Amino acid sequence: MANPNWIGVDWGTSNLRVWGMSRDSTVLAQVNTDQGMNGLHAEDFEPILLNNIEEWLPGSGPVPVIVCGMAGAKGGWETAPYRAAPCLPLSAEESVAPRTADRRLAVRILPGISQTRPAHDVMRGEETQIAGFLSVNPGFDGIVCLPGTHTKWVHLSAGEIVSFRTFMTGELFGLLQRYSVLREILDRSNWDAAEFASSVETQISRPEALAARIFTARAESLISDLEPAKATGRLSGALIGAELAAARTYWLGRDVVLIGQARLVDAYARALAVVGQNPRPENAERMTILGLTAAFAMFRAKEFRP
Amino acid sequence: MANPNWIGVDWGTSNLRVWGMSRDSTVLAQVNTDQGMNGLHAEDFEPILLNNIEEWLPGSGPVPVIVCGMAGAKGGWETAPYRAAPCLPLSAEESVAPRTADRRLAVRILPGISQTRPAHDVMRGEETQIAGFLSVNPGFDGIVCLPGTHTKWVHLSAGEIVSFRTFMTGELFGLLQRYSVLREILDRSNWDAAEFASSVETQISRPEALAARIFTARAESLISDLEPAKATGRLSGALIGAELAAARTYWLGRDVVLIGQARLVDAYARALAVVGQNPRPENAERMTILGLTAAFAMFRAKEFRP
């Protein structure tokens, strides 16, 4: 393989993904590992990265390494302070450049974005996917929803992130599935799509009753042997339904784009269909690569001139 | 100590509590252990109980042992099938009598109560506390709220459990405190009462936004160093506030009695004060003992005649 012209990195809480990129920003090689930033110390990041890309590195000259995600959080590789919304999704000036022992690396970590109004909120990594989306949809005015552990609803206008809101929906689902009294009654590989849709609808009509609604799955399982796939559909539908009820001002009458893993994008698309929305799905990895490419272009104009 | 005339047992998921009772049902001795039914097999219950009460047992003649709680659940000592609400809280006929190897024991396990309308629901143990409450408040017509891992709101009328609803509020708080991204920002020993009250109020006014509201604590902690005691108050207030919004038909314009641990009863009383309610607190252990006493009296009339 030819040595990459630059390297893109998405360093999340649980995963590390690295792409070796050509001069015209096509992917030459990639690595996915579970070496997320969780549990790492600042001094661990450089050797872990080197270990994954050693064979890509040229003999001389620093190669640009553009990093998005949790590596820039407090307790990560080096803190890249949040930028305040409303703002453009990316900023080369406000990135940080951790010193590396290995001179073949020129690392830049992208900042996350924060907000204090209408409510305190933060994102790290999603801004890069948004930048990727905007790079191929430059005039987009509408809503991007990024389903995940912490799902984000983001209002985009004039190329800027106007405001956003985070829901811990995915994390709640994971906690309930792994640790709660519901753990024994759920099906981990299947879910009932009809039960999911009806649960979304029920939850939207009485969105406050989440903690009671999810217990009905436990009770119905004890009393009437509720099928595990239905229990999973009900739990997932209740959590996403409550989120849709709260995010109504985002999606009502707007164009909605979904960026995420296929399985989650599918669930959110089905839930949004219940309220008459027809969101447009986008591939999360593609958006990340496009966003890192847009970031590299911003840097190159300033400091990585050949 | 005199040998007890009968023995009361509250065998929950995490704890086992046993009381040695006199002929006139005062407590002669008591044992509290963490030998809850979680992780026990059916054959473990008798030896564990014996081990805790060996020195109380008479040389001859079976001693009545009245058991409430999860010991009667599927996977417990012996299944005591649910009785369907509306119904009286207790039934001697529908209890089960597991065979014991030791002839000095005459065990009766009380059934739980289920409901299929307006929603599927179950309780096990709370019905005994309710029976205890009714034994000293025979004409009570109103609402009993039993805060806990799975908080119950119960409508009582004419001595019967008319209907009830369970909220997983306590379990959600525990999961979020122990395992979630919020775990590092919470204060485990203190909470800010003003933040709690304001969070209850915010949540009641927008009850659907729970998964977003609780993330604001994480975001504000990252952006503005939110005090841990405030983060705890906000999380607790949001969860209980959402519950109050959903349980409005229970408490609005009704007499509300709170039965539970002092700390939880205090939190629910403060939350109910936000909506103008002045609930009456009752001690949970006292209600359990009164309920077991009422159950023993029902049995005695039938089968434990001296």
Q: How would you describe this structure to a colleague?
A:
- 2 copies of one chain form a homodimer.
- Chain A is globular and about 70 Å long.
- The two termini of chain A are 21 Å apart.
- With 306 residues, the first copy, chain A, is of the alpha/beta class.
- The longest helix of chain A is centred in the C-terminal third of the chain and has 19 residues, at 228-246.
- The first copy, chain A, is 37% helix and 22% strand.
- Chain A is built from 9 helices and 13 strands.
- Chains A and B meet through strand 11, helix 3, helix 5 and helix 6 of A and strand 11, helix 3, helix 5 and helix 6 of B.
What's the SSE blueprint?
2 copies of one chain form a homodimer.
Chain A: E1 6-11, E2 16-21, E3 27-33, H1 45-53, E4 63-69, E5 83-84, E6 105-109, E7 113-115, E8 121-123, H2 126-136, E9 142-146, E10 151-157, E11 160-167, H3 169-179, H4 193-205, H5 210-224, H6 228-246, H7 248-251, E12 256-260, H8 262-274, E13 280-283, H9 284-302
Parallel strand pairs in A: 1-4, 4-6, 5-7, 9-12, 12-13
Antiparallel strand pairs in A: 1-2, 2-3, 7-8, 9-10, 10-11
